[in-house]
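Input/output pair, single chain:
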Amino acid sequence: MTEKLLQYIWQFQHFNAALLTTTENENLRINSPGALNTNQGPDFLNANIKVGDTTWAGNVELHLKSTDWTSHQHSKDKNYNNVILHVVWQDDGNVEASFPVLELQNRVSKILLNRYDEWMNAATFIACEKNIHQVNELAWKSWTDRLLAERLQNKSTIIFDYLKENNNHWEETFWWLLAYNFGIKVNSEAFEKIARSLPVVLLAKHKNQIHQLEALLFGQAGLLDGDFNETYPSMLQKEYGFYKNKYKLQRVQAALYFLRMRPANFPSIRLAQLAMLINKSLHLFSVIREATSLKEIKDLLNVTANDYWHYHYIFDEPSTFKTKHLGNQMVNNVLINTIIPIVFAYGVYNREELYKEKALQWMEQITAEKNNITNAYMQVGIQNNNAFDSQALIQLKNEYCNRKRCLECAVGNSLLKSYSQL
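Output:
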């Protein structure tokens, strides 16, 4: 038994409440267990109980043993002056106090305790994988809704931090996020640094000239250093040299990685596509924010790197012709990890439900992500129909299952409730 589990049992009243009596054999009725207190003081506030013929209103403190009250020195803390009930797992001795004590160890289902213990010691993909399919559809849908909202809320916090850095400039924030996403994990931080070194105001001056945009991006990335045999990279090198002096640019100190990457994800290709996306639209975030359909955004993201890259993956090394489209997988990646989060964050920031609802609706319209997490959930019978499901499952795995937060999980709650009645 842990205090956290005891709190859970008390909060949801998962114990046999028939013919309750205190340790002094007084009749006890719980009218309200109170509200869980996450701050200093008693565990539950504003409870209501009836002891004998007297009704009491106040706070409830929980401990594994009744003598913990003394060892924790609560009697000397004024925060505990209004305690009306001491709930303990085991009554291990007399404690001088003015309130009654309720012992729970003989009133809780052994099946519940055993199952919780199994979960805490499980080394499987998720602790409840043998039972998760037993959760009813309505409870599961409600929980995945909350999980996705949590995930987007977490991403919104990062976006709000960016806004503080750039004086609430949404276009600049979007540019940083977009570049980070184009970096494909291994190069994401380097891409963000490149974006931060090239403000959108500066890029706007060159948006109609794709080779100037490429010169700025590749130059800041350090990919225009050295000598080139081909005309195009040599031209970009000269362009960058001119604009580096004009704008007093400081080249980004961050390595770009090509090793063990699919050629389509080479940083050179992603930077070229990023340049084309800037070339295609000046105020990207404004366009996205006001879009009414996901198709509008997909059309906006339907970019192809310029002709030079159809025959190259890196400078000075020709390859077989292949059009360098952004690709459906990358488009969905940008939608899921950049566009939808920032539209949701905009709605939160401005308290406009329209944008939050639009973000959630778009997530449901995107193809499901397939990765180790979603595949493993599917193996235990959980559906993954769209990106809404995928993102919820990723949030569930990373924030709840990995941390064994079963008592805070709607799945864990639902299953433990059923065990408490056995």
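The first helix runs from residue 3 to 11. DSSP finds 17 helices and eight strands in the chain.
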